[in-house]
Amino acid sequence: MRSDGARYARRTVQRSLVRWVCALVALMALLSCHREQGGLAAVRARGELSWGGDIQGGEPYVFDDPRRPGTRVGFEVDLAEAIARELGVRARFVQNDWANLVPSLERGTFDMALNGLEVTPARTGRVRFSRPYFLYRMRLMARTGDARVRADVTSLRGLRVGTLGNSQSHDLLRRNGIEAVLYEGQEEPYADLERGRTDAVLLDDIIATRYGVVKPSLRVVGDLGDGYYAAAFRPADESLARAVDDALSRIARSGELRAIMARWQIDDPRLAQIVDWTAENQAQLLRTTERAVFGWSHVKLFAEGAWATVRVSIGAMVLAVLLGMLLALTRQYGPRPFAAVAVAYVEVMRGTPVLLQLYLLYFGLSRYVQLSPMTAAIVGLGLNYAAYEAEVYRAGLQAVPKGQMEAAIALGMPRGMALRRVVVPQAFRLALPGVTNDFIALLKDSSLVSVITVVELTKQMTITAVDVRSWLLPGLTCAAMYFALSYPLSRLSRRLEERMARS
Amino acid sequence: MIELVSVTKTFGEKTVLAGISATFDDGAAVSLVGPSGGGKTTLLRCLNGLESFDGGAIKIAGETVQPGGERANRAAFAKLRGRVGFVFQQFNLFSHRTAIGNVIEAPVHVRGESVSSATERARQLLAKVGMEEHGHKYPHELSGGQQQRVAIARALAMKPEVLLMDEPTSALDPERVQDVVELLSGLKGEGLSLVIVTHEMHFARAISDHVCVLHSGSIVEQGAPREVLSAPKDPRTRAFLGLE
Ligand SMILES: Nc1ncnc2c1ncn2[C@@H]1O[C@H](COP(=O)(O)OP(=O)(O)OP(=O)(O)O)[C@@H](O)[C@H]1O
Ligand SMILES: [Mg+2]
Question: Interface pTM (ipTM) of the complex?
Answer without folding.
Answer: 0.93
